[in-house]
């Protein structure tokens, strides 16, 4: 059933959020903008993994490999040594390169599932890390390579022009990359939601729920599972490009198994198969260690970086915390933060029972379908007017 509310009322929160995000660089310092940049890059990659694991039901532990393909692909294509292509062209080709890597692995993803697919993708991480360390001419080896800045139409997303100011605010690399990250994340958000709402999303959900039933309905199971792997790899490649631009230097040790586990934590905490949930989980997992590092001297049992001692470091402490968050989510909210938010909205929309004169009963709201959930979960907001019915019965009793 379509939403009867006016378009402005339905899109109002989204527009306000977009305006708020666009205004943040004028008020936040570089540290908070870096957190936002890393979170947006992580959200792009988490949305891709959510499509693969949450919607298509395929376990992948190799997401870090495809992020590395996107990051190093951009660095090599746009830098020296390398073809030295325009950075915008290198960005597109790096995303396509990550998709091609996913396409080469897609025959395995189309025929293997469950823990077996997880082990197969795990091999990609170790293989990729070995290649990054040994292919010095392309990757720079252990020390990595510096990242060429992105340039679009003569505008450079770096501090090449320190005199640039907008409304009295100096715009450095973080401020410029902030709007680039917003644009890339907006493209990811709308394309992923459109995919979930369309026929591909319904087909992937059917494959996840029952491959036999999906095949009976005419869904080519192997083809859709392979396509999901390719699309997820392309999102990961785009996230890798944005990460490389944000870090300004890429090193092999960043793209390790721990990064793949972090991405699994993002989609589990946020909610499997949900674009908004993957975004919320990415912000939580990405921002927590950075915040704990900055405020380590004010937190109990957490040692400041480089101080040593018997206390745990902020990175380890953050992993313990979101590990505990995963356990709590799995026990009390298996659908993640997005499911909690959806149930909270349903409670707020539910109208209380009102006792009125005869002939006036409580109204029940229409069923609404959450567009962010591929399986089409619905929530009924109606109530039953039992008190009013009893009152009318007493009036007609002789």
From TrEMBL:
Indicate yes or no for the key word Transmembrane: yes
Q: What is its main location?
A: membrane
Name this polypeptide is given = Branched-chain amino acid ABC transport permease
Q: Which Pfam families match?
A: BPD_transp_2
**Biased composition regions of type Low complexity, renumbered to the chain:** 353-388
Q: How does it sit in the membrane?
A: Multi-pass membrane protein
Q: What CDD domains does its record include?
A: TM_PBP1_LivM_like (cd06581)
Protein source organism: Streptomyces coelicolor (strain ATCC BAA-471 / A3(2) / M145)
Transmembrane residue ranges: 12-28, 34-52, 59-77, 89-108, 115-133, 177-196, 228-251, 263-291
